[in-house]
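Case study.
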Amino acid sequence: MTDPATVLSELAEACEGLARPADESDAVAGVAPSLVAAPRSADQVAEVLRVAARHGLTVVARGAGSKLDWGVPPERVDLVVDTSGMTGVVEHASGDLVAVVRAGTPMADVQQTLADADQQLALDDPTGAGTVGGTVATAVSGPRRLLYGTVRDLLIGITFVRADGVVAKAGGKVVKNVAGYDFAKLLAGSFGTLGVITQAAFRLHPLARDRRTVSVRAAGAAAATRMAQDVLGSQVVPSAVEIDAPPGGGRPEVAVLLEGVAEGVRARAATAARLLGDAEQRPAMPGWWGRYPFAVGDTGLKLTTEIAGLPALLDAVRRAGDRTGLPVHVRGSAAGVLYAGIPSGGDPAGVATAVSVLRANAATYGGTVVVLTAPPAVRAGVDVWGPVSGIDLMRRVKHEMDPRRTLAPGRFVGGI
Amino acid sequence: MDLSELAARLRARLGTAAVITDRQRLRTYECDGLAHYKVIPGLVVLPEDTGQVAEVVRACVAAGVPFVARGSGTGLSGGALPHAEGVLVVTSRMRRLVEVDPANQRAVAQPGVINLHVTRAAAPHGYYYAPDPSSQQVCSIGGNVAENSGGAHCLKYGFTTNHVTGIELVSPTGDIVRLGGKAPDPPGYDLLGAFVGSEGTLGIATEVTVRLMRAPESVRTLLAAFPSTDEAGRAVSAIIGAGLIPAAIEMMDALVIEAAEAAVHCDYPAGAGAVLIVELDGPHADVEAQFVEVESHCRDHAAFEIRIAADDAERALFWKGRKSAFAAVGRISPDYIVQDGVIPRTSLPEVLRRIADLSSDAVRVANVFHAGDGNLHPLVLFDEAVPGAAEQAEEVSGAILDLCIEHGGSITGEHGVGMDKAKHMPRMFTEADLDTMQMLRCAFDPGHLSNPGKVFPTPRLCGEVPGRHKGAHPLQDAGVAEVF
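After joint prediction, the assembly is written out as follows.
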């Protein structure tokens, strides 16, 4: 790197003086950056990235930082681009059910703005602290993915800055649009390795007029998945079907969310309650709803499977817990996306064993296991992303977009 | 290598019947649904499985010959227009529905499987495949993937891209790659999302895994007649504004109604300036409650006649007029252009007025559209025999796209860019946007052989990667491209 003082002054010039030397709190999964810049617009992000390119700086984008330690720790971070100063709903076309939002806007703020028009961005925010940019970059989802889909389904347009400091956009601000490649999907879940997202356009949904939750404690994992699958195969059109299985063989809870017009919700809640063996209907969701079963510092896994593989995967989680003596808490959607939490302090070798056992099991049902977050000692002993189909093409995409590997190098799949 | 050598090589590998070189037979494939572009392909091959598709692509790569994939050939943007010096890979022999898997709510199909056949096979299990382009009785799943096809019901359920969970493809370098499958959220870049809708420029889909949805418990359809498109448009706004999302909201104006009557005798209410078809589906109690609301929004906005489909037969009759609209205008005009553009739905009244201003005696515009999501399909009617009319129609058609862009919309909502609209892409995207998109192209297709000349107005030269290709790029040699 060139003389730090020179770089800092160029960065400051690029973003209205909002650049500073990094401190301890800016570390990315334990990797210490040198500098932080907080541009306020796409043009400033572009200028900052051009400065970075000129001086060969590696760059990690940060929103609220709620998922900053996810993935593999980057090989090197010279500069953190803090997007939290790029906030606000640029446009809310309520009649068109579309909103355009700046990347640094907290998800909660977006929802609040949209709620004034009885609308919502139908994406859950599992950490409760995410920004729009971070939500897109990590493609996180929650219970309601079952009905509404995930980031990729609701993102209709994107503006981002390439590694070489060029501003590019794709998609637009109409829901139906097939002009050009769907780069928005490519950026969704790319963990900041293809560009710095500055703005996103979303398809919105009306806020449900009425909602009810139906939940029950099942006798065991097999009973829980059977009930969940009965609901999936029924006509109640659930917005979410969640299973929460605490560690140590505690009885799993199944909870179903129904949304819509009052008449319909009432009828469907009654049907769902019957399918869950005369379950309890209640106005609010259970306390664990929509939150990961792991906290900062714990090991957090994401497990996927075909729908029919759900009972076997839940059973595998229980057995992995028995075998390693680790208290594994699992929770997730009957759509085939589960999250598992193992508290910090667990034996890293045990966690590694659990991950490989679960990975083999998930693969039997077409699924995968990703270590979202973990303490350094655990991370060092596991393959964080696991095997990835199509990795050669992914490497080629990265090479075209960021040939010098300046954006979050090493953080993503296959060392991308 | 010349094409006859390539043909001989492919015959040896795939069998004689799989390779067509006879000029008369090649002519069958000279165009897709956009029939005014015609190119006789250099060679047609009909592979039977993934391995054969890979063989064909590898042979093309080795020979430096471009290839174009074609399903049923119903596309409306010239996406499957052949290359005169290239190979047309037709998937019509890959028609096996590999699996219907209701327990996992998925089906697996070869690319030549007809869209409607997926739903037919899933129906006995109580499931269906949601994307329903008007051509669903003939169009193929592979073509749907290439074009990210929509349909009347995508207002509520989304497009092909929202319903494909896995794909096996042959990349433009001849590699067989699997992306996704029956399980959600495969780790890594969402290349599947980028591939769907890439119009054959990123490779050829050889197997597609799609989401099956539970067939709705209840479907209710109404047909409402309005004095004009203004009132019909306001009714649509009221429905959406009330937080209702019908499965479909379709609008037709007087000229389209006239054509549909002439063609299929759908018996729509006489004297209507506009007709809306609104369909609700879902659980019984929800649909009944919302249907009452939709009906009252229509009445509040001057609907003078509302018909409610009593059964499936009557519902089919309502839809018959709509689904036949493109072909039907042939009854009232010797020639016509089907346009496909998108506007924010709220701009509908203004854009329709501006479209009316563009019309003249020589060039009339009939409007049929997916009113819920602002996807317009203006039909520009003209008579080629009238001097200057064809040029004037082209102008009007282009001006409609200008209106779409001016209002923040798109130059295509579902028909694709293809050959037809590549020239319009710079009106919607900057040079940097298009250059960025083509980085993806270069990652997949460094040799620029997979459906070249489509989607992008100017090809981008792919950066040099060690071992990839040496010397000047063939496009550069030919003077058709510069290094960016």
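Observations recorded in class. The first strand of chain B starts at residue 19 and ends at 20. Chain B touches chain A through 94 residues (CB under 8 Å). We will return to this complex in the next lecture.
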